[in-house]
Specification:
The complex is a heterodimer. By secondary structure, chain A is an alpha/beta fold. Chain A has 2 domains: about 180 residues, Rossmann fold; about 100 residues, Rossmann fold (3-Layer(aba) Sandwich), CATH 3.40.50. In chain A, the strands form 3 sheets. In chain A, strands 2, 3, 4, 5, 6, 7, 8 and 14 form an 8-stranded mixed sheet that branches. In chain A, β7, α6 and β8 form a beta-alpha-beta unit. Chain A starts with a strand and ends with a helix. Chain B has one domain: Rossmann fold, CATH 3.40.50. An 8-stranded mixed sheet of chain B has the order 2-1-3-4-6-5-8-7, with helices on both faces. In chain B, α1 packs across α6, α3 packs across α4 and α4 crosses α5. Chain B is globular and about 50 Å long. The two termini of chain B are about 20 Å apart. The mean pLDDT of chain B is about 95. The chains are: A alpha/beta, B alpha/beta. At the A-B interface, β2, α3, α4 and β10 of A face β2, α2 and α4 of B. β10 of chain A pairs parallel with β2 of chain B, so a sheet runs across the interface.
Chain lengths: ~375, ~270
Amino acid sequence: MTSRLEFWQGNIASAEGALAAGCRFFGGYPITPSTEIAEHMAAKLPKRGGVFIQMEDELASIASVIGASWTGARAMTATSGPGFSLMMENIGYAAMTETPCVIVNVQRGGPSTGQPTMAAQGDMMQCRFGSHGDYAIIALCPASVQEMYDLTAKAFNLADKYRVPVFLMADEVIGHMRERILVPDAVEHTGRPAFVPGTPPFKPGADLIPGFPEFGKGYGTHVTGLTHDERGYPCATNPGLHAALVQRLVDKIESATQELSDFDLINPDAEQVFIAYGAPVRTVQQVIHDHPDKTIGFLRIRTVWPFPAHALALFKNARRFIVPELNLGQITREIERHTKVTVTSVPKLGGELHTPAELFAVWEAGA
Amino acid sequence: MSFEDWFRQDRLPHIYCAGCGNGTIINCTLAAVSSMGWKKEDTVFVSGIGCSSRAPGYIVTDSLHTTHGRALAFATGVKMANPKLHVVVFTGDGDLAAIGGNHFIHACRRNIDLTVVCMNNQIYGMTGGQGSPTTPRGCISTTTPYGCTEPAFDLSELAIAAGANYVSRWTSFHVKELEKAIKVGLETPGFSFIEVLVQCPTNFGRRNKFRQVADQIEFLKSHSLLKAKRDRLLEQGEAIPEDMYVVGELIRRNRPAMGLQPKEAQS
């Protein structure tokens, strides 16, 4: 495989990764700091036989994406906090109807309108739990322009395979920075689980995932956000059926946690271990670069949801996990419930990254 | 092919109350659809939430029963991603004009090639009879117990102003006219909007002095004013009574549209 060297902005890399993955539909609404993704798709998609449509709001954007996905198209949207909040309703619909779709959230400071041009990671819990009811999703966190490309392309494969909304939880720093990227000449493109005509359209396979009965093939699929049986028919007052459906929606993702996990272990014998995802990864990398004596451990997570709890035990000597986040400790709380090791949250609000000196000082204080 | 072939027989009986007019409208819609000679695999029904929106669940084609108010946004995605599909949307007054109002005007503005059948029962039927944006002034609902004090939306005029290519309004009494209007809507490229005033005996009629189902249908009939007659009255400088519903083909035009069938797919 040959690849070419480019110097791209993170948001452009995400759009290009989507195009490489065969995304054919983008429904979006402009919002800082994600807008470049929509603009790039508006320019490129029509020339590749795809459809770009600017919808009237984010409620409509995600709705159009779900509609497009049922015709078999790989479909996505991109947004930031305020738009993400508006999408929650139909993200739940996508989870309930098991509709593959990709949602990029270039996170900015919240709550509310907050800091449109500054980085944050304040939507990490919202992406996991933001819509009502119990469900599970997959969320990937890029820490470089390269990963904006790679993980966006990967998100489409995961969305298709698991029939679930997949989130690329980027942030303003990663979305807007420019750096070198190696663009592969092709990306892996796996399909949706095959549907066997004549079988109930929502009957899951052994992996808990049903085949995808796309529209326009004569399958006569009824899709509803109501609790439904394996035929797809509303069946909203049967307690056992509802419990089993919701449990399956969660289990199909959580039972695949090992398979979905994507993390790097750096200096696994260390006693103090940084855990980071997204932009703070860059700061931790600098700290380790500046102190190359292998005493600083690092668990660097790309797939944040489902959370790879098994990775924590791989640091056998760990006596402290240090978790820098651009929020008040959202993933810290998730880590705490999976370990007996002391967990130190290093929150940072305001839109700027931690400095390497700040993080090293936390590490040094515990050394 | 009879319109009955379009029903999902294994889903019957349906959820609609005795005397509900939605079945009449579904029958008229399916009669129009079946007269188009479309293949079932090329036809998709989309809906939002409410009594009207349960209709696609009783139809054998691919169907998307979505979230409250968002049917047109979902339908836009389906149609734009695959313009070969014929997309018909069922909606109601609450779904379309309250929570979905923004999607409605923008779908009209885009003039996207959908046919929308709105069952306007002037009430939230499914949730037990709350006031909607089309509840007439003075009418009783569970949230307007002293009579509705807000003016009602004229959905058809809204669709015309927002840019729809075809707009027609009838009532559940006018079954022949309605079927023809829906057919014209299906044939017309761009956004076609067919508003149907329909009786809801359980939640509207019973609170508003319609003792029998037929009383409300009779009311809709007697309060319908043909567009041609309305135009004549206006020409003669006569006043149009406020409680009349103007029915008929309200507009048919050929504005640029989106999501049209590719030429090679048109028969």
